[in-house]
């Protein structure tokens, strides 16, 4: 039986990677996540936030962007909607204008705001 899994970059579900050179949805050529390698671990949400924020910082500093880290963090966050605290600093900063009811301007990569503090997508 062929291996199934999902794209690490965009999360697109693939029933078989046989014959694929890239993700059919986002064209990523990165190594996919195989379903047979899924694991469950016990970790505190705060510990996970620390790991994600360190990865986010490293991605922005050393790799020219943390897009892959943001995608992975969002997939994890969707598994636990009961935790409102985001896993990445960028998402935490993005939530500030709504949470505090004020304008926020930042130079954090991935968090762009206009003069009114509105997040630019």
Question: How many β strands by DSSP?
Answer: 3
Total of helices? 3
The separation of the N and C termini measures 41 Å
Globally, the shape reads: globular
> Could you give the order of the helices and strands?
EEEHHH
Helical content stands at 25-40%
Low-confidence stretches: none
Mean pLDDT: 85
- Spatial order of the strands in the main sheet? 2-1-3
Report the major sheet: 3 strands, antiparallel
**What is the CA-atom radius of gyration, in angstroms?**
17 Å
Beta fraction: under 5%
Structural class: mainly alpha
What can you tell me about this protein's structure?
This protein has 121 residues and is mostly helical. The protein has a domain at 1-39. The chain is 36% helix and 5% strand. Strands 2-1-3 form a three-stranded antiparallel β-sheet, with no helix packed on it. Strand 1 and strand 2 (13-14) form a beta hairpin. Helix 1 runs antiparallel to helix 2 (67-79). The longest helix is centred in the middle third of the chain and has 18 residues, at 45-62.
Brief write-up:
This protein is mainly alpha-helical and 121 residues long. It has 3 helices and 3 strands. It has a domain of 39 residues.
List the helices and strands and how they pair.
Blueprint: E1 5-6, E2 13-14, E3 33-34, H1 45-62, H2 67-79, H3 89-101
Antiparallel strand pairs: 1-2, 1-3
Sum up the structure in keywords.
single chain; 121 residues; mainly alpha; 5% strand; globular
């Amino acid at each position: 039986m062929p291996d199934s899994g999902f794209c690490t970059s965009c999360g697109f579900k693939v029933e078989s990677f046989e014959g694929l050179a890239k993700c059919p949805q986002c064209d990523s050529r990165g190594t996919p996540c195989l379903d047979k390698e899924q694991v469950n671990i016990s970790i505190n949400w705060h510990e996970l936030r620390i790991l994600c924020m360190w990865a986010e910082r490293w991605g922005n500093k050393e790799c020219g962007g943390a897009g892959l880290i943001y995608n992975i963090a969002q997939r994890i966050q969707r598994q636990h909607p009961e935790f409102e605290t985001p896993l990445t600093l960028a998402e935490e900063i993005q939530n500030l204008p709504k949470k505090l009811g004020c304008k926020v301007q930042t130079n954090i990569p991935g968090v762009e705001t206009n003069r009114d503090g509105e997040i630019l997508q």
